[in-house]
Amino acid sequence: MSLMTTDYDTIAAISTPPGVGGIAIVRVSGSTAIALVEKVFSGPDLTKVATHTINYGHLIDAGAHRETVDEVMVTVMRAPQTYTKEDIVEINCHGGIEVTNQVLQLVLRQGARLAEPGEFTKRAFLNGRIDLSQSEAVMDLIDAKTATAQKAALNQLDGSLSRVVKRLRQELVDLLANVEVNIDYPEYDGAETVTTKLMQTKTNKIMQELDELLQTEQQGKILRDGLETAIVGRPNVGKSSLLNCLLHENKAIVTDVPGTTRDVLDEYVNVRGVPLHLIDTAGIRKTDNQVEKIGVDRSKAALKKADLVLLVLNASEKLTAGDRELLAATQDSKRIILLNKTDLPELIELDQLDVPKATLIKTSAVAENGTRALEAALAKLFFEEGVTSTQLDVMVTNARQASLLEQARSALQTVLEGLKQGLPVDIVQIDLQRAWEFLGEITGDNYDDELMDQLFKKFCIGK
Ligand SMILES: Nc1nc2c(ncn2[C@@H]2O[C@H](COP(=O)(O)OP(=O)(O)OP(=O)(O)O)[C@@H](O)[C@H]2O)c(=O)[nH]1
Ligand SMILES: [Mg+2]
User: Fold this and answer.
1) Model confidence over 115-129: pLDDT tens digits?
2) In the listed set 343, 369, 388, which residue is the last one of a domain according to the structure?
3) 3-state secondary structure of 26
4) CB within 8 A of 412, min separation 6: which ones?
5) Beta strands at 23-29 and 335-340: parallel, antiparallel or unpaired
6) Structural domain includes residue 459
7) Residues at the annotated binding site for GTP?
8) What residues does K(+) bind to (predicted)?
9) Is residue 429 part of a domain?
10) DSSP 350
11) Which atom of ligand 1 is least distant from the CA of 259?
């Protein structure tokens, strides 16, 4: 359902990140926003200035002492061409924590309410400026860790997914209309068989499109959260040293004591456009040390969860039973095997490594050799065998959307099975209707309040 702009109360929040900066922005939205700021603003009359103008002046606390709170620039944007479709005032104040808070408090004392996380975007949705999948794109855009992720989010904000979903819904409606005709005018000869055939073909086609969308989900997740990449190996082979090489900083503690890394350490890093969520793990071995044991268990869990495994071997030693166990444990994972410490004489039995050559990379973390080859291999794996930028036009980037697509797909599956069993079209149409409803939840054409609250709570305050 699309709602007309409703008169909600006026909300305010600090929209810039907390902390010290050159400027900070306090955003106010709602029908009383302009009048409310005008009460404490000394400068041009904000209720009279043209829309989308920025106005210089001072904020005055009208209390007993009439103190000047700050020298500010105030942007006035009148409905409906604003982020929320309501009147918006943005106060650009000096970016100190104390100043910004005082400005916010002053605005709140004039009758605005502190906005909840994501409430500005929620209003944009409630007032019909963007749909639910676009709201989620706003959040993804803020969270984007790489240029590729940003592009995907921007596409979705532009409504690319919504357009596909809306078209599919329309096709379902057309199909349902056809069934209605069939029911209302049964005297049409053969209408029933035509409708069954049509329904089969159309349902199949829509299901195919849903499948294609669902296939983009895995890629979308990687773009958003990074490729979950676990660096594993037995103790002391140089895992933490390699992490530091990829990060270009000494983040992880490196010592010559086996069992140095105890806790799983993770970092986001952008390697040639590939978003990696790198996880340095404790060296895997049997141990009686309580703390190390926990570390080893966590390593094993990280290994299970990983999209990609970087298995590190020490090239200057012979293969050990531990190495062989890890080679066997990771053989079904997407993996790259790093032969580290190649600056030392090579003792590893390469001929006993029964793995494709392309997945073997020689490195030396101390000499910083091989990191380029590793970066190239990661990019190749990612762009040639995984996500490619050409597929980014429409992408499902979010688990909620994927699950709804999945449910719509399964409803259509039920339709097809019903038809196969010879059920009359007016019975199977119930599942067509369900598919239509699931798809509607993606864009928010169908929504319930609880879901919406959950969704917008994930936003930051001020957005
Ligand atoms: N010669 C040489 N030494 C290395 C290389 N990489 C790491 N080392 C050394 O090997 C030792 C162990 O390195 P770490 O990076 O702590 O190894 P780790 O695999 O993280 O070890 P744990 O955390 O104990 O599992 C340190 O003394 C490093 O300086 C390398 O390529 N060549
Ligand atoms: Mg380590």
Assistant:
1) 998 999 999 998 999
2) 388
3) strand
4) 203, 206, 207, 210, 431, 432, 435
5) unpaired
6) no
7) 236-241, 255-261, 280-283
8) 236, 255, 257, 260
9) yes
10) G
11) 24
Instruction: Note the pLDDT tens digit of each residue in 410-455.
Output: 999 999 999 999 888 888 989 999 999 999 999 888 777 777 777 7
Question: What pLDDT score was predicted for residue 358?
Answer: 82
Candidates 242, 254, 298: which one to mutate for ligand 1, based on the most atoms within 8 Å of Cβ? 254
393 domain-assigned: no
Cα separation, 140 vs 157, in Å, equals 9
Q: Is residue 231 located within the same domain as residue 374? A: yes
Pair (372, 418) in one structural domain: no
Q: Which residues line ligand 1 (CB under 6 A)?
A: 233, 235-241, 254-256, 258-261, 282-283, 340-341, 343-344, 364-366
User: Residue 370 has what DSSP assignment?
Assistant: S
Residue 233 is assigned to a structural domain of this protein: yes
CATH number, residue 60: 3.30.1360.120
Cβ-based neighbours of 187, under 8 Å, separated by 6 or more: none
Integer angstrom CA distances of residue 184 from 178, 188, 423: 10, 10, 18
Residue nearest to atom 1 of ligand 1 (CA): 341
Indicate the annotated binding residues for (6S)-5-formyl-5,6,7,8-tetrahydrofolate.
27, 90, 129, 463
Under 8 Å between Cβ of 261 and 275: no
CA 267 to ligand 1 centroid distance, Å: 19
**pLDDT tens digits for range 174-207:** 888 877 766 666 666 555 666 788 889 999 999 9
Q: What CATH number does residue 212 fall under?
A: 1.20.120.430
| CA 235 to ligand 1 center in whole angstroms | 8
Helix (H, G, I), strand (E, B) or coil at 156: helix
Q: Are residues 189 and 324 in the same domain?
A: no
From 129, 152, 187, the end of a domain falls on: 129
Give the domain extent around 66: 11-129
Average pLDDT across the chain, whole number: 88
